[in-house]
Amino acid sequence: MPEITTITSESLQAEVRRLLPSQRGFGQDLEAQNVIVPIVDLTPSAEGSSLREDLQTAPSLNAVTQAELNGAGNISPITSPGFYKYTAIMGILTDNAANVFTTRIDLNNGLTSRILHKLSNRADASGQEPQYLQVNGVFFLNAGEQMRIVNTGTDSFIQLAVWPIADVNGNLINPAGFSFE
Fold first, then answer.
1. What is 113-166 written as a DSSP string?
2. 88 has which bridge partners?
3. Are residues 85 and 142 in the same domain?
4. Residue 79 near residue 109 (C-beta atoms within 8 A)
5. CA 103, CA 148: separation in Å to the nearest integer?
6. Together in a domain, 33 and 109
7. How high is the pLDDT of residue 57?
8. Domains contained in the chain, number
9. CATH of the domain at 107
């Protein structure tokens, strides 16, 4: 025969109120019973309809934006709000010590830039070897912001691949073309 026991613990009741805000108005005590009650978890993770993070953030053919900038200039390959993952190769090929060239990846809102990665040659030595840098990361854009790639010299380049991983509200985006069966 099942027994129901009242639990009068203020700390447990406070924890229930904190974890379940909709239950704050109910003043009834917690109860426990000596009968095993099976619980069926119907969340997407339990049923297997959500991907592991490493699979969810994988690039896919139809979702990758590629950008390449050879020589001086700048382009903004991503201007839509959301979370993105990227990988890039940056390089400076010059051996001219008289000119300092930089190549960078930054976030910009039209007034302010925040540099994510920057590569510069040195102006103090001639005959220097070409410089390369491979970078990876994740960034977030608000409305009105953009991700830019910028080169200041004729002998610099950036090759970039970027793809969305979540919308502006943090809802995960599965790779393009993926669906659960």
1. EEEEEEEE--SS-SSPPPEEEEEEEEEEE-TT-EEEEEE-STTEEEEEEEEEEE
2. 135, 160
3. yes
4. no
5. 11
6. no
7. 87
8. 2
9. 2.60.120.1010
Number of helices followed by number of strands (H, E) in the chain? 3, 10
Domain span at residue 14 reads 4-37
Work out the number of other CB atoms within 10 angstroms of the CB of residue 94. Answer: 17
Residues 47 and 8: their CA atoms lie apart, in Å, by 35
Instruction: Please say whether the beta carbons of 145 and 129 come within 8 A.
Output: no
Query: What is the spatial distance between Cα 106 and Cα 150, in angstroms, rounded to a whole number?
Result: 8
Report the alpha-carbon angle 81-84-90, nearest 5: 120
Q: Which of 90-94, 102-106, 107-111, 115-119 has the lowest mean pLDDT?
A: 90-94
**Structure token digits, residue 122:** 């040195």
* 172 within some domain: no
Q: Which two tokens stand for residue 106?
A: 């930054």
CA 46 to chain centre: 24
In a domain? residue 178: no
Residue pLDDT, tens place only, 105-115 = 999 999 999 99
Say whether both 13 and 62 belong to one domain. Answer: no
- Arithmetic mean of pLDDT, 122-128: 61
- Secondary structure percentages of the chain, helix, strand, coil, to 5: 10, 40, 45
- The type of residue at 122 is R
pTM above 0.90, yes or no: no
